[in-house]
What we know:
Elements: E1 5-10, H1 14-24, E2 30-36, H2 39-49, E3 53-56, H3 65-74, E4 80-85, H4 90-99, E5 103-106, H5 111-122, E6 127-128, H6 130-140, H7 154-164, H8 169-176, H9 180-194, H10 199-208
Parallel strand pairs: 1-2, 1-3, 3-4, 4-5, 5-6
Amino acid sequence: xxxxxxxxxxxxxxxxxxxxxxxMATEPSIQVVGEASNGVDALAKAEALRPDVILMDxxxxxxxxxxxxxxxxxxxxxxxxxxxxxxxxxxxxxxALKAGALGYLLKDSNPDxxxxxxxxVYRGESWLHPAVARKVLSELAHPGHSDNLEALxxxxxxxxxxxxxxxxxREIAERLVLSAATVRTHVSSLLSKLxxxxxxxxxxxxxREGLASLNE
Length: 216
């Protein structure tokens, strides 16, 4: 990877932040540009520093991680968010992904997994801890979700496949020779038709339906 990935570390525990910063210091392709100790601080630092990736804790004072993710995503600051938390409960996983997090990693993960997760999220790809991925796949298998691919147009299926490959809207637009606005419309439409909350869920849905594979 030639580009340096600029990372903002958000956690209310200084020892966790310092540990992550020390780990990042061993990776020449990753640069920690700032630290924040709560969601309010995270939003301010995200606006001021414009990091590529934000490592976001969820349980924090003043403003929790889920609301911080929601506000940062709404502000369209361009940062991709990777949750780094100790909690894998449904009331944390699904709201965080729905709010806009692209990855979800548990703090007991291998340091190498954290580095790889940062790289994948930076590329616009999803990264889910195996326990979290199982939860999301189980949720998608629930009868409340539509399995009707026939509801999608051919173009929407095509866009869904590319979302599952981890492509951004701009990259999909270039691939299909469309405008980014048109791609956004297709993504919103297919999420609505399939009753899915995020691109991450769409990618897992495509995987389950055989529209994409782990090898892609």
